[in-house]
């Protein structure tokens, strides 16, 4: 069995916790309160800025050059595609970025990715970044299959359920398998750990938006 199916197998219960989460259930129905979606979008804008930088760090570390190009394209995709989506949502829902600081969950996730991509090996960074791609595709498809008419969040759903995004996710998965194939057992273990931590943080990110999470102190 190649490596990435094992990764997905390990997070299957966690993935089901995500699809069963009220944030995703209500997003699917189009009944998610606007303030919760606003919280999510504001935090995601902050997340994406750091995520793009983490991808750029990976581009700098990548070998061979073809992989430098891939990570640069991922980074560019994170900036261009996501900014466009956020741009439209910021307008549609009258959201402002002013005075917004990272929530505890966003802070934890962005710092985890930044530290991992800078400090750990390329292979471990690859695994830490993979849930951001893979979980979003699966969640996007999951929601899309239960299509509800007049969902105010349809543009968000379409972005992650589209074929274009799916092709990017396939690239990220294939690259992870290629890296794992030549990695030591110790590195593969670290990759599994990193994939699991990021997956937990994906759950936490949605949960924090649902709770309108703020710093308690
Ligand atoms: C918390 C959080 N995690 C993952 C994504 C998904 N995502 C963001 S950028 C990118 C790659 C290129 O578009 C992907 C898959 C998100 N938006 N927010």
Automatic annotation (TrEMBL):
<keyword id="KW-0378">Hydrolase</keyword>
<dbReference type="InterPro" id="IPR027574">
    <property type="entry name" value="Thiaminase_II"/>
</dbReference>
<dbReference type="GO" id="GO:0009229">
    <property type="term" value="P:thiamine diphosphate biosynthetic process"/>
</dbReference>
<comment type="pathway">
    <text>Cofactor biosynthesis; thiamine diphosphate biosynthesis.</text>
</comment>
<dbReference type="GO" id="GO:0005829">
    <property type="term" value="C:cytosol"/>
</dbReference>
<feature type="domain" description="Thiaminase-2/PQQC">
    <location>
        <begin position="9"/>
        <end position="211"/>
    </location>
</feature>
<keyword id="KW-0784">Thiamine biosynthesis</keyword>
<comment type="similarity">
    <text>Belongs to the TenA family.</text>
</comment>
<dbReference type="GO" id="GO:0050334">
    <property type="term" value="F:thiaminase activity"/>
</dbReference>
<dbReference type="InterPro" id="IPR050967">
    <property type="entry name" value="Thiamine_Salvage_TenA"/>
</dbReference>
<comment type="function">
    <text>Catalyzes an amino-pyrimidine hydrolysis reaction at the C5' of the pyrimidine moiety of thiamine compounds, a reaction that is part of a thiamine salvage pathway.</text>
</comment>
<dbReference type="Pfam" id="PF03070">
    <property type="entry name" value="TENA_THI-4"/>
</dbReference>
<protein>
    <recommendedName>
        <fullName>Aminopyrimidine aminohydrolase</fullName>
        <ecNumber>3.5.99.2</ecNumber>
    </recommendedName>
</protein>
<dbReference type="InterPro" id="IPR004305">
    <property type="entry name" value="Thiaminase-2/PQQC"/>
</dbReference>
<dbReference type="InterPro" id="IPR016084">
    <property type="entry name" value="Haem_Oase-like_multi-hlx"/>
</dbReference>
<dbReference type="GO" id="GO:0009228">
    <property type="term" value="P:thiamine biosynthetic process"/>
</dbReference>
């Amino acid at each position: 069995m190649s490596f990435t199916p094992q990764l997905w197998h390990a997070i299957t219960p966690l993935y089901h916790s995500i699809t069963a989460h009220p944030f995703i259930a209500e997003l699917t129905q189009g009944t998610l309160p606007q303030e919760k979606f606003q919280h999510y979008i504001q935090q995601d804008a902050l997340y994406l800025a750091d995520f793009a930088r983490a991808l750029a760090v990976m581009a700098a570390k990548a070998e061979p050059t073809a992989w430098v190009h891939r990570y640069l394209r991922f980074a560019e995709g994170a900036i261009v595609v996501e900014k466009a989506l956020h741009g439209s949502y910021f307008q549609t829902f009258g959201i402002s970025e002013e005075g917004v600081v990272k929530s505890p969950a966003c802070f934890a996730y962005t710092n985890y990715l930044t530290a991992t991509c800078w400090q750990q090996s390329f292979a471990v960074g690859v695994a830490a970044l993979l849930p951001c791609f893979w979980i979003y595709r699966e969640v996007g498809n999951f929601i899309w299959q239960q299509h509800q008419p007049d969902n105010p969040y349809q543009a968000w759903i379409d972005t992650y359920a589209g074929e274009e995004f799916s092709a990017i996710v396939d690239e990220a998965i294939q690259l992870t398998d290629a890296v794992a194939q030549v990695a030591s057992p110790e590195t593969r273990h670290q990759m599994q750990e990193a994939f699991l931590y990021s997956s937990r943080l994906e759950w936490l990110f949605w949960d924090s938006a649902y709770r309108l999470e703020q710093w308690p102190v």
